[in-house]
Amino acid sequence: MFPTPIEKTSRAWQITYQSLIPVVLVIWLLPLIAVAVFSMKPLADFTNGNYWGLPSSFEGFANYYRVFFESDMPRYLLNSVFITVPTVIGAVALSAMTGFALGIYKFKGNLLIFFLFIAGNFVPFQILMVPVRDLTLDLGLYDTKTGLVLFHIAFQTGFCTLFMRNFIRALPFQLIEAARVEGIAEWRIFIYVVLPLIKPALAALSVLVFTFIWNDYFWAIVLTQGPGSQPVTAGITSFNSQFVAQYHLMSAGSIVAALPPVAMFFLMQKHFIAGLTLGAVK
Amino acid sequence: MTTAAPETRSWYKRNEISVTPWLFLIPGMFFFAMYVIIPIFQSFYISFFEWNGLGKLSEEGVYVGLDNYQRLLGGDRKFETSFWNNLKWLVLYLLAIPLGLAISLFLNQTVRGIRLYKSLFFFPFVISQVVVGLVFSWFYLPREGLLNAILTFFGADTINVLGDPTMATYGIIAAGLWPQTAYCMILYLTGLNSVDPEQVEAARLDGAKGHKMLWHVILPQLKPATFIAFVVTIIGALRSFDLISVMTNGGPFGSTRVLSFYMFEESLSEFGFRMGYGAAIAVVLFFIMLFFIGYFLWSMYQDEKGAR
């Protein structure tokens, strides 16, 4: 193991290390801690210039209450859910199929199609912006959640195919061959042999795509406009213009907007990291 | 007597193995082509027009040939600023890799509660860039911000990071480095997990330690992690948009624009929709990216060839 395991070092360094970690962590998360503290303060602290002293009173509940009941925040959050969940289902389903096709079968153009998916996935969004906006307008889906979902599914399919194909490729191929010898139809092999085996990949992709889509901002402002369809990342800017310079409320709002992916991460940590680090080890 | 089966089987049954992959590919490819592949070519096409995005391109657009590119590359000040800022982003963003490696080395221990520490260190990456941007713009606030509170505490002068054209871009890049470093850290932590302990022990017996060990024994084994860290960092740097839009909206005096932001501004700003010009900027950005995409695909192709 590298660096030298702490158990094998001097007692003094062990103690230093143990006490150093929390200190470094606090410094690392300082900007975030600052916002969390802001969100607990009353308005009076800001008008009196008491930015960094102790809160003169604890107003956490009142601030968060106002975020939920006196702003459009709940609508934006709900929009985010209705955009994110269908995208996750769509992108994961499509890529399980493409991944199966590219990972199991040998045919002409296999690698070419695979590389097309990867390349498309690296492309700067901006080159898609004008045509995709136009297409969405033509389909009558501008400023709708559906329009945003369709695009997200398509774009995420690139990344998800890369992931799925490599995962399926690593499965023991004898299982497929054995099923074929038994005379099982190919689509049944997909459903009864491959799908159960790729459950970890399905889970990992679902959490990753959830986070990516929840956090998307660019497409949200390109394809949607108002509280009727905008997700929370875009909504937070109008939220902030509603509460200009009221840092306690803006802080509480940001924390609410950021929370769902954070919760997802802590609940599904193993899958999340497995997904992100795919390919980081050989 | 048994007769040969094939004649009685349907066409699909006979060609099952060659047809199935295409059936599975069609929905995914259809979506991907419609929303990703074809739009790339459409953008190229649009970049030869002057078009305000209202009405059909074929009716309202005016074909101007290479005019957009000539204007862009022939002394558009905004374009030059954006381009140089993109370069700054590219170079400085790469700092996420050594920083991430340093934190991962610091955390690669098995003390109590280390798993929780690792996740807490990682957690900036999970937050949306919009919130990261807001958090940092409040951190930098001249009066209320924590940064200046700390500077004053140490007796230094206060600074207005995002209000100063010479500092603003660096302030935004620093904000971007925060989640990106966390990402690289997690890549390296996973990589360190799979470092061959026998090689490390053998090297230790040979008297290797510290940075020598790191450079000659550990880093070569972390190569796959470094490659991915490199890929995601480059792409992240060239995609930077959210932070700029949230933190400065391109200002002060346009000093924090990058190509992706400038493109957006030209195409969809309140000054009017200049889709053709925007598309031309996107094409330039695409070619910068293509250079890297080519390299990534080439390395992946080498791996594929090695695999079979």
Give the low-pLDDT segments of chain A: none
Strand content of chain B: under 5%
**CATH class type of the largest domain in chain B:** Mainly Alpha
Mean pLDDT over the residues of chain B: 88
Q: Using only CA atoms, what is the Rg of chain B?
A: 26 Å
Largest sheet of chain B: 2 strands, antiparallel
- Number of discrete domains of chain B: 2
Corresponding CATH superfamily of the largest domain in chain B: MetI-like
Q: Give the class of chain B from helix and strand content and strand pairing.
A: mainly alpha
CATH-defined topology of the largest domain in chain A:
MetI-like fold
Q: Which descriptors would you attach to this protein?
A:
heterodimer; A: 282 residues; mainly alpha; MetI-like fold; B: 308 residues; two-stranded antiparallel ribbon; 16 helices; 2 strands; flat
Describe the structure.
The complex is a heterodimer of chains A (282) and B (308). Chain A is mostly helical. Chain A has 2 domains: 6-68, no CATH class; 70-276, MetI-like fold (Orthogonal Bundle). In chain A, 74% of the residues lie in helices and 0% in strands. Chain A has 15 helices and no strands. The longest helix of chain A has 32 residues, at 73-104. Chain A starts with 10 loop residues before the first helix and ends in a 6-residue tail after the last helix. The mean pLDDT of chain A is 89. Chain B is built from 16 helices and 2 strands. Chain B has helices at residues 11-14, 16-46, 57-60, 67-73, 77-93, 96-107, 114-122, 129-139, 146-153, 168-193, 197-205, 210-221, 223-239, 242-247, 259-268, 275-307; strands at 49-50, 62-63. At the A-B interface, helix 1, helix 2, helix 5, helix 6 and helix 7 of A face helix 2, helix 6, helix 7, helix 8 and helix 10 of B.
